[in-house]
Specification:
By secondary structure, this protein is an alpha+beta fold. A hairpin with a 2-residue loop joins strand 2 and strand 3 (55-59). It starts with 10 loop residues before the first strand and ends in an 18-residue tail after the last helix. A three-stranded antiparallel sheet has the order 1-3-2. It is built from three helices and three strands. Helix 1 (14-23) packs across helix 2 (32-41).
């Protein structure tokens, strides 16, 4: 992962992070719930999370490169596979 820039961290809540990632074109769409899920699925790779009150915040300078480099996996539609009984 890239080294952070010098200076104060740019802390964003998961909700703010999701909006910013979309507005900057890093991802096509993202929700704060999905960010929470990604954090649970990749606890070792996800940028450090700091609890602030009832929210979690991350340094955007660490989170942006993480999401730029992250490989996305599209869901698989099992209902379209042959031999799958839907009853």
């Amino acid at each position: 992962m890239a080294e952070p820039e010098k200076g104060a961290p740019e802390l964003l809540s998961f909700r703010e992070l999701a909006k910013r990632l979309v507005s900057e074109g890093v991802v096509e769409r993202m929700t704060h719930q999905r960010i929470s899920q990604i954090r649970r699925e990749d606890p070792d790779g996800f940028p450090p999370v700091i609890p602030v009150g009832r929210s979690n915040v991350v340094d955007y300078r660490l989170a942006r490169p993480y999401f730029v480099q992250r490989k996305t996996r599209q869901g698989r539609r099992t209902d379209l596979e042959r031999g799958v009984d839907t009853e």
